[in-house]
Amino acid sequence: MKNLSYIKFAFSFLSVALFITACSEKASETTQTAATEEPVESQEDIVKRGEYLVGIMGCNDCHSPKKVGERGPEIIPELMLSGYPSDRPIVKFDSKMIKDGFGMFYPDLTAAAGPWGISFAANLTPDETGNGNWTEEQFKKAMKEGKAKGLENGRMLLPPMPWTNFTQLRDEDAHAIFTYLKSIKPVSNIVPAPIGPDNI
Ligand code: HEC
Questions:
Q1: In 3D, which of 112, 102, 103 has the Cα closest to residue 61?
Q2: Is 200 exposed, middle or buried (0-12, 13-18, 19+ CB in 10 A)?
Q3: How many CB atoms lie within 10 A of CB 197?
Q4: Are 186 and 126 in contact (CB under 8 A)?
Q5: According to a count of CB atoms within 10 Å of the terminal CB, is the N or C end of the chain lower?
Q6: How many CB atoms lie within 10 A of CB 92?
Q7: Is residue 63 lining ligand 1, measured as CB closer than 6 Å?
Q8: Which positions of the chain have pLDDT values less than 50?
Q9: CA-to-CA distance for 124 and 75, rounded, in angstroms?
Q10: 199 and 117 in contact (C-beta within 8 Å)?
């Protein structure tokens, strides 16, 4: 009788052990499949990821005109990411304060003055006055190397464009951001050229 229960115990132990082995083999098969099969990202997924990156990387802070609403500055939806609005009169900055070392922003951050002069946030919408005619390569060069219009011989981008934060930007992230920017509403807006420090 005692022997029988030992045998029973041994059998149930064995079947549990076999079950565990089978499960772990199954699990390693699944991980292997996951590692070899690249998930296919749809165009929609890429646009969504680009929108997410633009959101968390704060591009709207400077590139989107805003109006003051109940919760402080709010993005004007139809002007999203279209840069400093060209129909806005350029405020006279206090150049004495700038010479003393201060920097200043327009209340919606689309323009800033400092020792570099006055810079105006660019139009990033897919209009021809924005990035409509840009290639992805140009976009990457502007973002990662700080070259205006992404041109090799372009001038360096001025502050406060934080391009030095983006030198390590991965190709797939740059691609997602660019794809998203190409998908948004085009806004015709010729952003003024920067004003040199001696002219403010
Ligand atoms: C703190 C403000 C600020 C933030 C944040 C910011 N930018 Fe800019 N950006 C600017 C300004 C100002 C310029 C124009 C600089 C100049 O004229 O030299 C600019 C220029 C650019 C340009 C070059 C445009 C051209 O015509 O050469 C690109 C591209 C750009 N920004 C993309 C982005 C993206 C994408 C993000 C978010 C990941 C971003 N910027 C975040 C302020 C900002």
A1: 112
A2: middle
A3: 15
A4: yes
A5: N
A6: 8
A7: yes
A8: 1, 9-11, 13-14, 16-21, 23
A9: 15
A10: yes
